[in-house]
């Protein structure tokens, strides 16, 4: 009764736990990781990383639904001339009560539930709020618990109403009471549309017009062309007509993404975005959504849908297999009650402990289910043995007395192994370890309370054989037992060959473990026919790429030239300003990085990224580099115009200024193909090899200018002559363009070219006279790299910048001639160099921060693998220690771990050799194999050592262990493995892989325990498991040793790993008094006397 009373609490906890499921790759990494810190920092300053892209068939600039949807997503504030509905007492806007408390409607207002004409809404943390007719919002003091609901039901039954108790939260306009839907939190923070940005750039007064006041039709057409080029692949499709809307989420919108974007599955309401699309007249079957929040929602929904569709099918298959094995409806129900309640309880613990499930933790119920199933099947088989040997009377007690020790040791050992995963610094693995261990231990309560009580209350009928003895085993069990004994004889006779073959397989597949690769790319989790994959395919074809990769160029204030020229400056500041960058030059930093990336990785290069976005996207075409007086004047005019619009640029979400440091943050936003099989690690490295040379050129420019200025007694550097020793890439590009004759030029990743061309432009903009001495030369200038030309340059120029080493010039000779040599060959990015983070105290004055989904996913993949390997090694180490303690032998403990490791090595090694990636759906299945293998190993070794203590030879002890354990092991594999194999037909890839891996791992665990382990025990290593005389079964409680074997009348204590007796009588007779010739002597089964 106690178990049945507690089951509803488990069901409720499991349901509430699933409702709180959420997945965010960022949350998988510890908060102290560089990638996590950088992404959090980025989200503090910019909005666009958590974006949702919305489009549909026929979404063009002329579609009125586009602007209508934009207004619905982010309603504009009322003007002074309008009725100020929305200007609530608590404050509209940033302090709006709906946003503050995350309020939303549940579909039922429960109006006047408490008798005060109140209307009800839910808020953050599933907390209830109600609004009164006077506009007062109260936070309800009641709780959504079963006991609370029962109390309120009784209260309403006896008093006719419920007493309303709440705490004051806010006061709003009474209009909100009349229209509570308007009190809901704003889930979207900002929204932009393609036509809106196009107008901002190219319409009269747009930022692309050089002279907005004097622009004619030709200027407008040219601006429109440039704007479409910049926005193609971002806000407009290749045809120039298909467009979209991009919305960013508010804090309230991020709390429950399914409430914001969900498709309304599993009894949930349709997400707010989809509701508003319907209100705007956009059919759901034409709507396409993309972006990181959409990915996370899809994972949550697909995981739940898969469970809903397949869990009943899996249970049906498991029940059918269980009935075939057990041949008893009652026993089948009992077994599945234990496994099912254990799994449900483990999930409910997640909620009751205040946590939430994720994609990794969704594997945990299956782990507990299989382990609970295994324990129940072992107890059931011990019960059947007791019934056949001594009758139904007292059989449950004997089953528990026999199985409590191995079941307890197996559960504790497995819990220790799983609990070791809690040492991981990866949140999903840590939670998996903690809650799996708790679930396994909770299973013991069911095994030792519910199961014996159920067997006593509803005992299955046992048939009588021809000789009158009870026959509790099903034909399938008898066949399995006979088959197992034949296997035992085969292995015992060929133990060396079998053990050798197992060791060879262990080594081969162990080698395959070194080839394991992990993947946490979210879209790889979905079937090709899933809605999200179809949406991404449509969006990337019609609009552009969608996976965000962000670069932020951080410029410290000491590098920034002052804004304007009228402010008085102290001499020191004026002295430094000649080295500082103007606003135009700082904007060019972002543009140079963006252009370099697009040249190599963009559509004209490797086609890994689409068009990027930066502040330069919203600025007019920037002037070319130049150092002449005219160029200087043009660039100065451009700079002043850009400075005038700096506040407007700060509103674009691509330029920010840090409050604390005053540093400018120039964002370059890139988009990768979601459906392309991009290796993120290689991509991030390539990205740094492109961007870092650009930043290195800016740093080197500063060094060169300061060197020249110092040599001139701080009198400046303008018009000084500098020779660059290295390839003249400008000439090469011109020649390549001429030869191509209109054809596209292929851009390759060349860090030297990126650095050299950038440095040349920066020196020219600083008004230095720049010459080249190209050691390669070219056909048009055969004397370009002659010694005579170098001698001429040495007579004319004082400063030589070495970009590339060559034997064409003697640096020692140049230095001897009194020239200044500046080494600029250290521009390349090295993957071994330490990764910079915004939190580093010694961060350079000019640096690039790489963040977004891509580096986080890549780091998560590497970290999950390393953490999983480390945690699993710890698990096996701790289990080996426990096994050594239980077996009272370190060597025996280590040997006993070989069959426990065997299934993991076999299956995951095969995946490594076959090139099958390990994803989040398969990572934790190793713990299932470990748990089942440990459970079966302990039961097998228990009977093996018991047989040895009874005086049996090792061969006979192995046969006895087979007879006692093999059937339960095979039944666990058949019922658990084939039952969970149903998930292999899922359309959700992690669930699908989990399904076929489960059956594979359980089968491998069975081979490890019924093939590998017996072969080891039958060989020389088996001698380690023979107890010495001090632990012999013949030792009585007082410590006096008795001779073995003993007859059936002795009272014998149980040794450390010895099952308790099955017999209660003193003879080999059944309960009807008939002798059973098929039974072994009583001394082979009994370790104590009862009844």
From TrEMBL:
Q: How does it sit in the membrane?
A: Multi-pass membrane protein
For this UniProt entry, which residues form the secretion signal?
A: none
What cellular-component terms does GO give this entry? plasma membrane
Query: One Pfam family, short name please?
Result: MMPL
Keywords on this record? Cell membrane, Membrane, Transmembrane, Transmembrane helix
Superkingdom of the organism of origin: Bacteria
Q: Where is this region: Disordered?
A: 1028-1091
Q: What is its main location?
A: membrane
What Gene3D superfamilies is this protein classified in? Multidrug efflux transporter AcrB transmembrane domain
Q: Where are the transmembrane segments?
A: 307-326, 333-352, 364-383, 404-426, 432-455, 496-516, 872-890, 897-916, 965-988, 994-1017
Per UniProt, residues of the SSD domain are 331-457
Cite the record's Basic and acidic residues compositional bias ranges: 1073-1085
Compartments in which it is found:
Cell membrane
InterPro entries assigned: MMPL_dom, Mycobact_MmpL, SSD
Protein name as catalogued: Probable integral membrane protein
**Species assigned in the record:** Blastopirellula marina DSM 3645
């Amino acid at each position: 009764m106690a178990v049945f009373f507690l089951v509803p609490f488990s069901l409720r906890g499991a349901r509430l736990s699933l409702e709180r499921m959420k997945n965010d790759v960022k949350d998988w990494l510890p908060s102290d990781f560089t990638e996590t810190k950088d992404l959090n920092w980025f989200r503090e300053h910019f909005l666009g990383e958590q974006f949702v892209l919305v489009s549909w068939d026929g979404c063009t600039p002329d579609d009125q639904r586009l602007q209508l949807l934009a207004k619905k997503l982010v309603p504009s504030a009322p003007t002074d001339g309008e009725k100020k509905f929305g200007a609530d007492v608590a404050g509209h806007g940033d302090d709006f009560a709906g946003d503050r408390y995350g309020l939303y409607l549940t579909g039922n207002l429960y109006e006047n539930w408490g008798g005060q004409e109140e209307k009800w809404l839910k808020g953050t943390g599933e907390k209830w709020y109600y609004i009164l007719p006077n506009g007062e919002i109260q936070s309800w003091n009641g709780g959504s618990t079963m006991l609370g609901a029962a109390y309120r039901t009784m209260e309403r039954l006896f008093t006719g109403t419920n007493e309303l108790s709440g705490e004051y939260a806010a006061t709003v306009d009474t209009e909100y009471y009349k229209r509570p839907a308007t009190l809901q939190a704003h889930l979207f923070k900002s929204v932009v549309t393609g036509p809106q940005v196009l107008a901002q750039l190219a319409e009269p007064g747009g930022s692309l017009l050089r002279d907005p006041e004097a622009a004619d039709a030709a200027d407008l057409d040219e601006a429109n062309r440039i704007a479409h080029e910049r926005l193609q692949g971002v806000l407009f499709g290749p045809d120039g007509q298909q467009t979209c809307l991009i919305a960013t989420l508010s804090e309230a919108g991020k709390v429950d993404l399914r409430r914001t974007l969900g498709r309304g599955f599993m009894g949930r309401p349709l997400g707010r975005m989809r509701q508003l699309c319907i209100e705007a007249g956009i059919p759901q079957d034409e709507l396409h959504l993309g972006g990181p929040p959409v990915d996370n929602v899809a994972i949550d929904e697909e995981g739940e849908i898969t469970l809903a569709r397949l869990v009943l099918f899996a249970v049906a298959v498991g029940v059918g297999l269980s009935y075939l094995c057990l041949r008893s409806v009652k026993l089948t129900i009992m077994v599945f009650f234990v496994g099912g309640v254990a799994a449900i309880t483990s999930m409910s613990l997640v909620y009751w402990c205040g946590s939430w499930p994720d994609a990794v933790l969704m594997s945990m119920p299956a782990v507990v289910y299989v382990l609970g199933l295994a324990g129940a099947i072992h107890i059931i088989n011990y019960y059947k043995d007791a019934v056949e040997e001594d009758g139904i009377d007292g059989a449950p007690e004997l089953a528990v007395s026999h199985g409590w020790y191995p079941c307890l040791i197996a559960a504790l050992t497995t819990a220790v192994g799983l609990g070791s995963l809690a040492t991981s610094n990866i949140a999903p693995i840590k939670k998996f370890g903690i809650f799996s261990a708790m679930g396994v231990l909770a299973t013991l309560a069911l095994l030792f309370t519910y199961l014996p009580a159920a067997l006593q209350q509803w005992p299955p009928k046992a048939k009588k054989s021809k000789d009158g003895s009870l026959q509790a085993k099903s034909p399938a069990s008898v066949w399995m037992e006979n088959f197992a004994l034949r296997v035992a004889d085969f292995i015992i006779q060929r133990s060396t060959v079998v053990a050798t073959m197992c060791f060879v397989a262990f080594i081969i597949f162990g080698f395959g473990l070194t080839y394991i690769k992990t993947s946490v790319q979210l879209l790889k989790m979905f079937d090709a026919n899933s809605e999200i994959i179809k949406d991404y395919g449509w969006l990337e074809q019609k609009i552009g790429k969608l996976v965000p990769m962000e670069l932020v160029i951080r410029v410290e204030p000491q590098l920034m030239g002052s804004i304007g020229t009228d402010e008085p400056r102290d001499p020191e500041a004026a002295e430094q300003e000649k080295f500082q960058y103007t606003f135009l030059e700082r904007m060019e930093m972002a543009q140079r990085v963006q252009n370099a990336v697009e040249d190599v990785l963009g559509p004209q290069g490797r086609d890994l990224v689409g068009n990027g976005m930066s502040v330069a996207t919203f600025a007019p075409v920037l002037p070319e580099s130049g150092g002449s007086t005219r160029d200087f004047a043009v660039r100065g005019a451009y700079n002043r115009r850009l400075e005038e619009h700096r506040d407007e640029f700060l509103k674009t979400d691509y330029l920010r200024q840090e409050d604390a440091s005053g540093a400018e943050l120039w964002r370059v936003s890139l988009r990768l193909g979601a459906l392309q099989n991009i290796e993120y690690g290689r991509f991030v490295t390539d990205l740094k090899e492109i961007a870092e040379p650009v930043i290195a050129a800016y740093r080197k420019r500063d060094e060169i200018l300061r060197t020249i200025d110092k040599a001139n007694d701080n009198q400046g550097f303008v018009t000084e002559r500098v020779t660059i020793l290295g390839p003249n890439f400008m000439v090469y590009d011109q020649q390549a363009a001429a030869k191509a004759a209109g054809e596209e030029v292929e851009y390759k990743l060349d860090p030297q070219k990126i650095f050299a061309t950038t440095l040349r432009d920066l020196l020219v903009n600083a008004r230095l006279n720049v010459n080249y001495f190209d050691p390669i030369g070219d056909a048009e200038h055969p004397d370009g790299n002659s010694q005579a030309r170098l001698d001429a340059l040495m007579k004319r120029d004082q400063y030589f910048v070495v970009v590339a080493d060559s034997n064409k010039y003697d640096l020692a000779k140049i230095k001897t001639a009194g020239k200044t040599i500046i080494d600029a060959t250290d521009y390349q990015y090295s993957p071994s160099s330490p990764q910079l983070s915004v939190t580093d105290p010694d961060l350079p004055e000019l640096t690039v921060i790489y963040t977004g989904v891509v580096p986080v996913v890549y780091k998560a993949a590497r970290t999950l693998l390393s953490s999983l390997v480390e945690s699993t090694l710890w698990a096996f180490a701790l289990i080996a220690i426990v096994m050594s303690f239980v077996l009272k032998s370190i060597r025996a403990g280590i040997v006993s771990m070989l069959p426990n490791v065997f299934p993991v090595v076999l299956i995951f090694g095969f995946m490594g050799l076959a090139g099958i990636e390990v994803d989040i759906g398969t990572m934790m299945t190793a713990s299932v194999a470990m748990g089942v293998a440990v459970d079966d190993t302990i039961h097998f070794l228990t009977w093996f050592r018991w047989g040895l203590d009874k005086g049996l030879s090792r061969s006979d002890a192995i046969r006895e262990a087979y007879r006692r354990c093999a059937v339960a092991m095979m039944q666990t594999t058949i019922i658990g493995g084939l039952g969970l194999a149903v998930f292999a037909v899922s359309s959700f890839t992690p669930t699908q892989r989990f399904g076929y891996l489960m059956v594979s791992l359980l089968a491998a665990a069975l081979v490890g325990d019924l093939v590998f382990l017996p072969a080891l025990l039958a060989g020389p290593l088996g001698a380690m498991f023979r107890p010495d005389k001090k632990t012999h079964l013949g030792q009585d409680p007082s410590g006096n040793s008795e001779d073995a074997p003993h007859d059936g009348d002795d009272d014998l204590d149980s040794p450390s790993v010895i099952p308790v007796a099955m017999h209660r009588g003193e003879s080999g007779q059944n309960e009807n008094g008939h002798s059973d010739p098929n039974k072994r002597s009583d001394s082979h089964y009994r370790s104590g006397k009862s009844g």
